[in-house]
Amino acid sequence: MDDADFLEALLNSLASEESVYSRWCRGSGSDLAHLVHGLTRVAEADWAHEAVEGATGPTTVGEVEAALHPVTRDAAVELMINLSADSLVFPGRPRRDRAHAKQAAMKAVSILGRESEWFSNIDGSWENGRAWDPVTRHTFDGVVAGRGGGFVVALLQIGED
Description:
The protein has 161 residues and is an alpha+beta fold. The chain is 39% helix and 22% strand. The protein is built from five helices and seven strands; from the N terminus they run αβααβααβββββ. The chain has helices spanning 3-14, 32-46, 61-67, 73-85, 98-112, and strands at residues 20-26, 69-71, 117-120, 122-123, 131-132, 140-148, 151-159. A hairpin with a 7-residue loop joins strand 4 and strand 5 (131-132).
């Protein structure tokens, strides 16, 4: 299995729960905001029935890009684990096996390499509460995206309470 196939399998396993989405592509760093924007559009279409009437959020690539800020590789791993295994809407309610999410996140980050760059809309540690800049029109959303090794990846969770 080559890196692309392995990366796809890892990201699919992280996003196997309802409301968690992943996407990847071969590409340069300039593709990151476009990839995240495309992923948010897919998630919003799937969750249109759950959206609060009249709710608004970023609609352009530039608006999504403005919501993303750099995070460390270690923070990216933790965010991927948490977005895959935990609920943004109902903290403390596990969604999946954390051990699997940790293993998959660590492998995905390693494929992108030590020089990879990572971004998220989430500020602060997961355990101490968090703030975020929205990337969708939904009440809750969190994304982590990275670029490196010729790949661009994103993992997104959305939700409503």
